[in-house]
Amino acid sequence: MDYPREFVEALVSLSGGLPTDRGLEDTLARVAELATQQISGCDFAGCTLVRDGKATTAVFTDPQSPEIDSAQYESGRGPCLDAYRQGIVCRIDDTRAENPWPEFAEAADEHGIRSTISFPLAGEQAPIGALNLYSHLQANFVDTDAISVAVVAHSSALLASAQAYWSAHELSEHLQAAMLSRSTIEQAKGIIMGARGCDADAAFAELQQTSQHQNRKLRDIAADIVRRQAP
């Protein structure tokens, strides 16, 4: 089969112009959609993500995908898991023939899937999962060597871009929250200093004692004081 280069070109285009408001799973969903649109014989696609050691089919174009994948998650072995663990492309040309992943192959065959291929997905710092393609045709993904490296490279670059953006975005939000909390605490200290006639250290100590006594975060105690003082 002559794989269309449009899929790789689309990945390159997507990785080069990643919208900043697109999260990781939204990005993966777009990659899965591109696969079904551009790769001949690909009936549906899904993305396995591994978080805290647990694998799930976080993104899919057809609900059959997570149903099939559950067999490998339960058995602990499957092409998607090996693609993630070993960083290699894993392919099944015939789910009815002998292969290293019998549980997965049986589940796939029960859903009418005769061939699959799984590409490893690497994020900014480490592997995060696999892109999985499914076909009702036997040996649909045989001619993949020419595009496998390109697909893995460009999809990985794409996901690294997505992760880098959202890491920076989350850091920015945390910093903003920290600055807001600090401002609130300073306001609360000023209110206590005015009411008690004490210095800043004594005002902060009072906030700490109240926080420990009520088992609440210090910033929440400070926010209550500022809120009560507001006209």
Q: What CATH architecture of the largest domain do you see? A: 2-Layer Sandwich
Sketch the topology as an H/E string, one letter per element: HHEEHHEHEEHHH
Tell me the number of helical segments per DSSP (H or I, 4 or more residues long): 8
Task: Provide the helix percentage.
Answer: 55-70%
Spell out the CATH superfamily of the largest domain: GAF domain
Which regions are unreliable across 5 or more consecutive residues at pLDDT < 50?
Answer: 12-22, 161-175
SS class: alpha+beta
Distinctive features:
single chain; 231 residues; alpha+beta; Beta-Lactamase; Arc Repressor Mutant, subunit A; 2 domains; 5-stranded antiparallel beta sheet; 8 helices; 15% strand; rod-shaped
Would you give an account of this structure?
The structure is a single chain. By secondary structure, the protein is an alpha+beta fold. The protein folds into two domains: 6-169, Beta-Lactamase (2-Layer Sandwich), CATH 3.30.450; 170-229, Arc Repressor Mutant, subunit A. Helices cover 58% and strands 15% of the residues. It has helices spanning 6-16, 24-38, 64-75, 79-86, 102-110, 145-196, 200-214, 218-229, and strands spanning 44-51, 54-60, 90-92, 115-122, 127-135. The chain has a five-stranded antiparallel sheet, with helices on both faces. A hairpin with a 2-residue loop joins strand 1 and strand 2. Helix 1 runs parallel beside helix 6 (145-196) and helix 6 packs across helix 7. The longest helix has 52 residues, at 145-196. 35% of the residues are buried. The model is unreliable at 12-22 and 161-175 (pLDDT under 50).
